[in-house]
Write a structure and sequence with these properties.
Elements lengths: L2 H11 L10 E4 L2 E4 H10 L8 E2 L5 E2 L1 E6 L2 E8 L13 E6 L5 E7 L2 E4 L1 E3 L3
Antiparallel strand pairs: 1-2, 1-10, 3-4, 5-6, 6-7, 7-8, 8-9
């Protein structure tokens, strides 16, 4: 391969964008990976209702009752990716058993805010 051929290939590849990007939720003061939210949404169904005590908001997971998606449950999420087991929190996940309904919420100074998913380009 001649030098000019190699240089043109390298120049052409420079315009490609990476195809693997991490989606995340953005709200409050953090960006939270979709993977972290999905993990909490799935794991909250493996715990007995009320198995964990929070500082101010009662016990979790808590059932929010039936909906068009089936039973919904709520469980705290830590923005750093660690598992919440007790104490305070600012984020929580609401999901159904099948995982077809998953929402992330942030409770800050402005009240409860639903987090939006960001898909990097």
């Amino acid at each position: 391969m001649k030098t000019f051929q190699f240089a043109s290939i390298v120049a052409g590849l420079g315009f490609l964008k990476p195809i693997a990007a991490d989606d995340y939720f953005s709200c409050g003061f953090a960006q939270i990976s979709v993977e972290n939210v999905d993990r909490v949404a799935g794991n909250l169904w493996s715990h007995e209702l009320g198995a964990f005590q929070s500082s101010f908001d009662g016990r979790f997971p808590v059932s929010l009752g039936e909906s068009e998606y089936g039973e919904l449950r709520k469980f705290p999420l830590l923005y750093n990716g660690k598992d919440w087991e007790f104490g305070s929190f600012m984020y929580h996940v609401i999901s159904n058993r099948e995982g077809s309904y998953v929402k992330l919420f942030y409770e800050g100074t402005k009240g409860l805010e639903e987090c939006v998913i960001v898909i990097p380009e």
